Amino acid sequence: MSDLRTLHDAFAELDRRADAAAAGTAPIVRPRRAVRLVPVAATVVAVACLVAGAVWLVPGDSGTHTASPPATSSIGPSTTTARDPIPTSPDDLVARFKVVLGDTATFEAEQKMGIPAPRPSKQPGTAQPGTGVTATPLEGPSIGSFIAGTLTSARGAGRFGLMMQPSESEPSDWCKLSRKKDCVVSTLPDGSRLATGTARPAPGAESYFAGLKRPDGTMIVMDVSNQEDPAGAVPESPGGRIYSPQPPLTFEQLKAIVTSDKW
Amino acid sequence: MEFAEYVARQRPALMRFATVLTCRTWLAEELVSDVLGRAFERWERISGMDEPHAYVRRMVVNEYLSWRRRLTRMSPRAEVEPRVISDGADERAERDAMIRRLAGLPRKQRAAVVLRYYAGLSDREIATQLGCREPTVRSQIHRALNALRIDLTATAPTFQETS
To answer: Where is the RNA polymerase sigma factor 70 region 4 type domain (chain B) (predicted)?
Structure first.
């Protein structure tokens, strides 16, 4: 006989396989009438040839990133007033994050995705010969980026997720999605709206969330946790193994990162 | 919340859930892609819900349960991706055996046990997701645990969640 720990080990292994598969393929969103079963290798080929449905997220290479020397050693708003453009490639976001993070921590971005225009075309797509898949052409390049991976500091290791893009959604939307019990939305002096929250999704697990919506519409969302899956694989899920007794960043550090002017 | 934002944030989690549910990564890829395609068509309504992710996850479960005809065409061998046990570690062998037993469960039993022990849902929530009564959920889970050869009296993980 086995016990539940073995079942959770099996779940964790399947999680790992899912992550590995996701890293090797460009995810697609398929229109309803385009249901088709193909091996993943065929999916790779199909995705390489077309953009199906609303979104095409492009994973990039992963690698370890050590923060380069920042302009100042502390995280926080700088005196710079000019904004750099929103990074439209995950690698650009990685570079930007290194600057903002400074010497606070190092990170490895294991998931990288470009985010296309938020309002994809609903025009009828074109059927790809021989595939049975209806594809809608991508309207333009990515307008934002998402990265996720492992973050390590003197406090320990943990997972993080970071997204930056222009957005019409409000930080309060992210409170719901991030499932933080004590999510608070406040307005900063410059008119930005900041949502922050914490959660303890499992015994010993702790996660922090911060989402900023600037007056110019730029959204910066980040969460960090001492647990494998800070966003939670599914609501109320155990969320994977715990790396450290505490998240690698403090709640205040996370808020300082999200509100930094170094973006 | 925009659909692209949702996908960027939650697709990895949906992929994990679908992989646990199907025990096959390529099938999970198909499942999630199809479900997100449908979710896109209804996104205006879904994004206004209190728990949009819970709703999309339910769509994944429903889609999975509706794939009976296609899944039964698969050979049993295709149920689980083979993994070579290179180091002979007992724990790894036990884990892989558990994956094989999980993949061999009837789909409703598998969905019930995944929703309970992976998603941490209560009997009532699982009944809602599967469209059955709570006693049926308990029966499905009981049978699944027997087939998985799991002894609930043995040491359980500290993070186990039940209703």
So the answer is: 96-148
Q: Do A173 and B81 touch (CB under 8 A)?
A: no
Instruction: Examine the domain organization and report whether B1 and B68 are in the same domain.
Output: yes
Least CA distance to A113: which residue of chain B?
B8
Q: Could you read off the pLDDT of B96-152 as tens digits, one per residue?
A: 899 999 999 998 999 999 988 888 888 998 998 888 999 999 999 999 999 998 877
CATH number at residue B55: 1.10.1740
Domain match, B29 and B67 both: yes
Residue B5: name the closest of A33, A16, A166, A85 by CA.
A166
Which pLDDT tens digits describe chain A residue by residue (263 residues)? 777 888 888 888 888 888 777 665 544 555 443 333 322 222 222 222 222 222 333 333 344 444 433 333 345 444 444 667 888 888 999 999 999 999 999 999 887 777 766 444 343 333 333 333 333 333 446 788 888 889 999 999 998 888 898 887 777 777 766 666 688 899 999 999 999 988 887 778 888 889 999 999 899 989 898 887 655 444 444 556 788 899 999 999 999 999 998 99
Task: Tell me: do B63 and B108 sit in the same domain.
Answer: no
Residues of A in contact with B93 (CB under 8 A): none
Which structural domain range is residue B74 located in?
1-78
The total of structural domains in chain A comes to: 1
Q: What is the CATH number of the domain that holds B93?
A: 1.10.10.10
Q: Does A203 touch chain B (CB under 8 A)?
A: yes
HSE on the CB side for A96, CA within 13 Å? 25
Contact call for residues A72 and A24 (beta carbons, < 8 A): no
Rounded Cα–Cα distance for residues A173 and B53 (Å): 12
Please identify which residue in the block is written with the tokens 């025990």: B23
- The reply to whether B74 and B103 lie within a common domain is no
Distance from A72 to chain B by nearest Cα, in Å?
A: 30
CA distance A122 to chain B (A): 9
Judge whether A156 and A103 are in contact, CB under 8 Å. no
ipTM above 0.85 for this complex: no
Among B159, B160, B162, B163, the strongest candidate for a mutation testing the A interface, having the largest count of A CBs within 10 A, is: B159
Select from B6, B9, B148 the residue whose CB has the most chain A CBs within 10 Å, as the one to mutate to test that interface. Answer: B9
B64 phi and psi angles, rounded to 5 deg = -60, -45
Interface residue of B14, B15, B50, B141 to substitute, partner A, most A CBs within 10 Å: B15
Radius of gyration of chain A (CA): 19
The answer to the question of residue A215 being in a domain is yes
